[in-house]
Design a protein that fits this description.
single chain, alpha/beta, two-stranded antiparallel sheet, 29% strand, Rossmann fold
């Protein structure tokens, strides 16, 4: 079993604990609101990748009650929780690396903390796939942890007990280059600190880009 599959298994196993730890997205609401302000109508079509228990989905659906949202996660336990939490959303168990198979276009794509579980190659492919799936004028939101790829490895988490999860780290220039090379215009970028329960401080990166 490769690290990606192990991580998916961990998220499935500890779906309830993850929900308790990360349901509150207050720290990221300003950036999510920025993304939402770019939607072209009050009924946008939104694709959410690695939706987890629906913490961001809940906020998006409240902001756009008439939206059509497809939310994808590979952990069935997460999808089960999300379906109970958020109504009128098309939740699907699926691999974000396969979105090119969707015969749909979107006004917005939400990719919140999906990249920590994708390699550099998979990340580049995902951004390219997302660009194809965005309508003209559509926006993409990407958040991930900043760091050198050499930091990648299994780490303990605040929700999975002694079971470790494999994390990838990405550099600003790599994400920025992938966005620009695919013809996307960067609308906003910010860094913000994330404080681990043990005292470690990580740096989150948030990109919002638009397809001209």
């Amino acid at each position: 079993m490769d690290p990606f599959e192990i991580s998916v298994q961990r998220f499935n196993e500890f779906a309830n604990e993850y929900t308790e730890r990360f349901m509150n997205i207050e720290a990221y609401k300003p950036s999510v609101d920025n993304f939402c302000s770019l939607m072209k109508s009050a009924q946008p079509a939104i694709l959410e990748l690695a939706c987890g228990p629906g913490n961001y989905t809940l906020y998006l659906k409240a902001r756009f009650p008439e939206s059509r949202i497809i939310a994808v996660d590979l952990a069935p336990g997460m999808i089960e929780i999300a379906r109970k939490l958020v109504k009128d959303v098309d939740f699907r168990v699926g691999d974000v690396r396969n979105i090119s198979s969707f015969d749909l276009q979107f006004d917005g794509i939400m990719c919140s903390f999906c990249l920590p579980f994708l390699s550099a190659a998979d990340t580049s492919k995902l951004i390219a796939d997302c660009t194809v799936k965005l309508d003209k004028g559509g926006a993409i939101y990407i958040s991930t942890m900043e760091g050198d790829s050499s930091k990648a490895g299994f780490e303990p988490t605040s929700f999975s007990g002694k079971s470790e999860i494999y994390f990838n780290y990405h550099k600003h220039k790599d994400i920025e280059s992938a966005l620009v090379e695919n013809g996307l215009r960067i609308h906003d970028f910010k860094r913000q600190d994330y404080y681990e329960p043990g005292g470690e401080i990580l740096t989150d990166m948030i990109f919002i880009a638009v397809k001209p």
